Amino acid sequence: MSSAELVKHHEESEDSADTSLSMEMSALFAILFSLAESCYCPQSPFLPKSCPSYTPHAVQIRCVRPDQTSVTNTLHYLANGNAMLRFSWRKQEYVVPIMLLLKALVGASDLEIFEGIIMQDYENTFLIDRAELLLRSYKIYSLHTSDQCLDYLGDKFRVVLGLPEDWTNLDVGTWFVRKLVLVHIVSARDKFRMLLCVIGIWKYNHFDSRFTQVHAQEVVRDRVEDMLRR
User: Fold this and answer.
1) 97 within 8 A of 82, measured Cβ to Cβ
2) Has domain 37-229 been given CATH number 3.90.1110.10?
């Protein structure tokens, strides 16, 4: 960018185009980097007896709203390549397929989701296999647009959430993703990016007793830096 363009974007006029970040990407970095401090990988399985497809591996994120109330989102990795997001509402726990949330947030195409997960790491066959299995697992829903997914979520959680009866399913679904999914992030697009970052931890196929909260934070930081370099 020229000096005038840099000043217009609130950057130093001497900054070079190669090293300066746009305001939008700087804001995204701040949002995603702050999340990493609340990210860790528990080793305790979720419903291991009734849900044999659930592995012991998960990434748990404690998200804090501006009023300091919090919601904990846990991404569970399944043995069949799928992934589920778990959340708690009025002392009851629920799970939602992560692909359904990705589609609901921005109506992303399969290609956008695939590329967002592997982030040009085409030599990582393990990660590519997981991404392909994740996409295939979603075919049973036949939901393609954001509104269709939000309407579906609203229909399934209408009674559970206890929202006004005159709300449409679309309204309920929109409230659901805003109030219960990564609540510390406002933008649906940034929530989508953050979920892709967390899903991509599959790239580091080394979940074991040594994979601590510090490792999880480092992984998220690496994913954020990769995203900013793209």
Assistant:
1) yes
2) yes
Domain chopping of the chain, boundaries? 37-229
- Would you say the C-alpha torsion 184, 70, 42, 182 has a positive or negative sign? negative
The pTM of this model reads 0.74
Q: Give 222: exposed, middle or buried? Use CB within 10 Å, 0-12, 13-18, 19+.
A: middle
Structure tokens at 190: 């940034």
CB atoms within 10 A of CB 124: 18
Tokens of 32: 């995603």
Residue given tokens 């290609």 in the structure block? 111
Q: pLDDT digits over 169-212, tens only? A: 999 999 999 999 999 888 999 899 889 888 877 655 445 444 45
Among candidate residues 145, 166, 169, the one with its CA nearest the CA of residue 157: 169
Take residue 135 and report the two structure tokens written for it.
Answer: 């996409």
How many Å apart are CA 207 and CA 43, to the nearest integer? 8
Q: How far is CA 171 from the centre of its chain?
A: 21
